[in-house]
Request: fold
Amino acid sequence: MRLRIGAAMAGMAGCAVACALLWPHARDAGAILAAQDDPTALSELLTNSALRNSPDIVAQNVEAALAADDADLANSFVELAAAKNIPLPEDLSRRVTEAVAEENSAPHFARRFATGLVTGTADDVASLSGTVAGDLFVFGDIRDVVREGKHLAMGEDTDHLILGLATAGLAVTAATYVSLGGAVPVRAGLTLVKDARKVGRLGEGLTRWAGRSAREMVDAPLLQNAVATGSVMRPGETISAIKAAFRAEKAGGLVRLAKDVGRVSEKAGTKGALDTLRIAEGPKDVARAARLAEAKGGQTRAILKLLGRGALLLAAGAFDLTLWVFWALLALFGFVSSIKATTERLTMSYLQRKKARRLRHQLALGSQPALAVAAAHG
Reply:
C-alpha cells in the first residue's frame, strides 16, 4: 500500500510540474486560437510575443527602413514603439522625423504627384494623388483599356486584370462624379490594385482571384469593337463604347475589394495598402487588413512587416498551438487523477489501519475471560 501511495504522489508531483511548464505556452496558444477570426486581437497577441522574444526588433527595423529610404515604414515602427512603450534612441527618432518631413515637403510631393499623373504608377500619397487624378479625368483608364484592348483584338498577350480594373474604373469614376466624391475611396482602391499589378506587387492568390473576376466583367467581342473604333482623343465616344462591354452585375466582388483597399489606404497610407496587396491571397485577406488598419492606423505597416500574412489570419501553426493546449489539458487531467488516486489510497490505508486496531482490540477483549477462567482453575 505504501508503494501504491508513493506512486500516486509521485504522479501528482510530476503532473503538477508539467502543468506549470506547459501553462504559459497553453495560455498563449489558447488566446491565439480564440483570436484567429479577429485580425486586431490576433496581431496584438503575435506582436507582443515578437517584441518579448526580440526587444531590439523595432529599432533594427527603423534603421533598415531609413536605409531603404522608406520614411513611412520607419515612422510606422516609431508609432508602434510609442504604443508599446518601447524607448527608442533620441537620435533615431530625430532622423525619422527629418525623413518624414523631407518626404512630405512640397517639392517632393509635387514631383511624385506629376510622376503618378503621367506614368499611372503610385507608391506613396503624392503619386497616388496624381494617379487618381488621372483616372478621375478618365485619361488613365482609357489609356489602359485601349492598350490592353488592342492586345486582345490582335491576339497578343493581354493583361485581363488591368483591362477589367480599368473598365470597372470608368464606371466607378462616373459614380464618383454623380455622388460628388462619395465613391473616391473605391476609385482610389481600384487605382491601387491596378498599380500594384503593374509593378508586380500583387500577391499570386489575389492576382488569380482578381483575374477571374475581371474576365467575367468584360464582353471581349464588344470591347474589341470599342477599341477598334475608339481613341484617347475622343473620350466621350470611347467611354460609351467601352461601358457597353462592361458587365456591371459581375463587378461586385472587385468593387468590394477596391473598397477595402481604399479603407486600408485611408488609415495606413498608400504603402500600407500596397503591402497588403502584396501579402494577400484573396479578398478576405484584404477585408481583414481593412479591419486591422481601422484599429491600428499608422502602426499597420510595422505590424505587417513583423508578422506578414500572419497578422491577418492564423495561416500556419494551428496544429502546434492545439497540441500545446492538448498536452496542458492532459497534464491537468493527470494531476487531478493523481490527486484522486492519492486520496483513495490514503483513505484505504487509514481504513485498513482502523480495522486492524479494532480487530486487535476485539482480540484483546476476547482473551480476558479466557485468562480469568484459567486463573480460577489454577
About this structure: The two ends are 45 Å apart (CA to CA). Residues 37 and 313 are 7 Å apart (CA to CA).
